[in-house]
From TrEMBL:
Record region (Disordered): 1-41
Name of the protein this chain belongs to: Phosphatidate cytidylyltransferase
Matching InterPro entries: PC_trans
GO MF entry, a single one: phosphatidate cytidylyltransferase activity
Low complexity biased stretches: 9-24
Length: 325
């Protein structure tokens, strides 16, 4: 976390009443305000001498992160173990919110992907995938893109290519990647597959966080995510390899521990790429968080970035290593 700027010298008295000349520094020049990169900005802590809120070296408020994570985990677990339809509805809702956040974040930079066909198409793709499988996921993406083009035509040619390109990015990034989580769920042992998927991604986050806090010294991508370190990546790889080995050996009749190691390592890489990709998008858009939907913690997409990239990897590898019987 960046330290607050130090005062550059003794304070100077304010201008006398009626004197239009403002108070100045000893040099007679007003100091410029320090520049802050919004992408790295963190909430300013309490004054000196006050109790400092618990925060991680990665810039996250740990109690807030735990509270949000616990709430989302409760929603996921209750619906996952209650009804496949209920869990699919949670995914559809997350897709709709994610599209809303991403479109709103993109629009200030002049691209205007149409919100309505993206949300309808994204949620519809989730429903189609739940009922029809892989082919329906691909068809849903295609239909969403076609709907976007048709919707955008009446607005004229100015910015058409820009708007449609941004819309295709949104459609591929949110509903298409999320559709692989639906494909995991619809299997007969879908609950186990979803648990193995989400828990392994969580291990990546936890392992990376702990290793980064304890030993993080070498930045992985300083221009994209300055607080992400190679030591944290090593922690993610180790945690995911252990989790993957346990899940494939114990959770699936036809899985093996060594396949789980491969699965875990791949999930760690995919989850990290997802995190870095969203960081790159946010830097390009000039925003710190995708939204303020989760108070003090950013938007829903800020919590889904790793999961979205890991979902297709989990689906492909679990299908290969532990095919449904």
């Amino acid at each position: 976390m960046d330290a607050p700027p130090a005062q550059s010298g003794p304070s100077t008295p304010a201008a006398a009443d009626g004197d239009p000349t403002p108070a100045s520094t000893g040099s007679g020049v007003q100091p410029d305000a320090p520049e802050i990169d919004d992408a790295d900005a963190v909430q300013v802590g309490p004054p000196l001498g006050a109790a400092v809120a618990t925060a991680s070296r990665a810039g996250r408020n740990l109690p807030a992160a735990i509270g949000v994570g616990a709430g989302l985990a409760a929603l996921v677990l209750v619906t996952l173990f209650t009804s496949k339809i209920a869990f699919a509805a949670v995914i559809a809702g997350a897709v709709g919110v994610g599209i809303w956040e991403l479109v709103r974040a993109i629009r200030p930079v002049e691209a205007r992907p149409p919100m309505v066909p993206l949300i309808i198409g994204g949620v519809g793709t989730t429903v189609m995938t739940y009922n029809g499988g892989t082919e329906s996921l691909l068809l849903g993406l295609l239909l969403t893109v076609v709907a976007v083009v048709i919707w955008r035509i009446p607005d004229g040619p100015v910015g058409f290519q820009r708007d449609v390109t941004a819309a295709v990015l949104v459609a591929a990034y949110v509903p298409f990647l999320a559709g692989f989580a639906v494909l995991l769920e619809v299997e007969d042992d879908g609950v186990m597959r979803i648990v193995a998927f989400i828990a392994t991604v969580a291990c990546s986050d936890i392992g990376g966080y702990v290793a980064g806090v304890l030993a993080g010294r070498h930045p992985m991508a300083p221009t994209v995510s300055p607080k992400k370190s190679w030591e944290g990546m090593a922690g993610s790889l180790i945690a995911c390899a252990v989790a993957g080995a346990a899940f494939l050996e114990l959770g699936f009749d036809n899985g093996a521990w060594w396949e789980g190691v491969i699965y875990g390592l791949a999930i760690a890489v995919a989850a990290t790429l997802g995190d870095l990709t969203e960081s790159m998008i946010k830097r390009d858009l000039g925003v710190k968080d995708m939204s303020s939907l989760l108070p003090g913690h950013g938007g829903l997409m800020d919590r889904l970035d790793s999961l979205l990239f890991a979902a297709p990897v989990a689906y492909l590898l679990l299908t290969a290593f532990a095919p449904a019987t």
